[in-house]
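Structure catalogue
Derive tokens from sequence
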Amino acid sequence: MQLSHYSSIDSAVQSVINGNNYLVFEFRDKFSDNFETRVTEMFDASDESIENSVIHLYIDLSKIHTGYMAIKYLLDGYHTFIDKLGLMLNKPKMNEQLSTINIVEVFNGELSKVGVTFMFVGPQLFIFMEFIWGMILSAFIMVNDKSTNVMNRVFVSGVNEYEYMGAHILINGIISVGQVLVSMIFVFVVFAVQQSGSYWEIFLFLFIENLVGIFTGLLLAIILAGPISVVVATFSIMCAALTISGVVWPIETIHPLYRFISYTSPITIPIQSFRNIMVKGWTFTQPDVYHGDAGNYQDNIQPALDVIVTRPEYSNNCHHSCKYCCDGIDGVETL
């Protein structure tokens, strides 16, 4: 952050309007003297003294996070200033005298770090990225196998549908473990994000969410016929999950009449459960945590398993169970 001095308030305000600066502080004539008068003679200070003892702020909120953090740090600086001023004037409780709100205790966080840490949007983005990564990876590996006839060659070699699907899930699961570990290393080691839960439970929850994405992508790829359909369905789910699941804004801001729509997303409840792990330090023994995983299995993994187990013929995009459907493969006799 860089501070710039302007000779007039008009030019300073214009710099904010033009987008050159984020905010302007205006300290009027004899600010310090007027502020001292305001503090020591609280009920006898004139209107002029009060007006000249106020820091006038002009701020651009087009970048909401920048504006929010500017106001937050300004208030933090003000409280620090009042504390030091109280010590200088031998009034150590000056801050309490000037405030009408007394925050007795803060649960699950620190008041000085509100909006600063990863907890602002981090947990929900964590869940969103794990789900999307698993879904895209699984769907496009399956689409690639279909489009390059890899799947048919595998079936010709004697592998059945269940073995092929098991291998597909295993490969994606191994990749998922690596991806979750890399994500956690970047967040908790490189960026040194502090959280209140167990790292093992965080890993397990993220891995399960990645599996949900894998099974969702697998379900799309084995039901939909062409690559274009899979791409459209994948990105439709991704956009819907981003907008209605509480990733960007809390679902509590949605009108209760329409809030049920949010719960159609596969990551809405897991986001709430994961926040309870990271922010509150809860474990899987808490209902509000394990309900997220139970919902994942019931609403996402179980339907995919049902399709794979009961309708294996979908795996090679045919409408019969013959595993030797090999049209177009050179050197193989078509049956």
Summary: The first helix runs from residue 9 to 17. Residues 118-316 form one domain. The mean pLDDT is 79. The radius of gyration is 29 Å.
